[in-house]
Specification:
This protein has about 300 residues and is an all-alpha fold. It is about 70% helix and about 0% strand.
Length: about 300
Amino acid sequence: MTRDPVTHAVGEGPVTGGRVRPGKRRPVRRRGGARLRRAGQYAALLAYLVFLAFPFVWLISTAFKPPRELGGLHPGWLPDDPTLANFRQAFDEQPLLRAGLNSFVAAFCAALVAVVLATPMAYVMARRKTVLARAATGWVVVSQAFPFVLVIIPLFLVLRELRLVNSVPGLILVYVVWALPFALWMLVGYVRAVPPELEEAAAVDGAGRARTLVSVVAPLLAPGIVATGLFAFISAWNEFFFALVLLKTPERQTLPVVLTHFIGAEGAADLGPLAAAAFLATIPSLVIFALIQKRITGGMMAGAVKS
């Protein structure tokens, strides 16, 4: 037997009578393009991570550099002679421990009050399918777009009438008002993820709304409540503008405000102690956010997919 000398086209049928009879085409695999796109995505993600990590890495490096390296024209990435003198100087110049205690008290109390208020409110907003509940949810989202400057004057006037200006309780009240909308938004997503059948079973057993919320819903919301409280704590711990405007007495100022004291009247900053104090003030936020970032994402996704 002799083989047909006519060369067959790739992916097409046999040749008959000088014409190519169409057949089934084989799927073309574009592996090279997919790999190139994936490599581009990883490269963009790596560049973004480097962009975010650079300030923190430079902060740590500056905190451990001696004064002669900080004043050099060409500072290096890493300190040639690491030292802890900047940390000792920071504690000697400013009351960091007292300011840290003020920040902790304000942040902890604000987070606790915000969670206690937001939990039953989020339950009502998630379970009541009314126009008022939808309007409240929309208002919660819109309120997050308000700038600080827009609300500081009304808050200051209210606190002045309550005689809470220049006091930590007044700052706690402001932090609660500011953290409550986002806490509501997060907890609504967690509540919607709880099956309503569990509440119906509790109602059959004779439990009222309050008993159902405390005994059935709240235990299931425990991870979300913890994540929401920690997020409110981080927001209050890092807050600067409200504390700067409302607190004037040095003994009552929070840690972010005290950090500005390392900058002189002419704008010259004492870089070493400032970097050391800022590094210490950043550690709690980083640790807490590393613990709750997965739960924050889960709460957002739950609110997005549940009706």
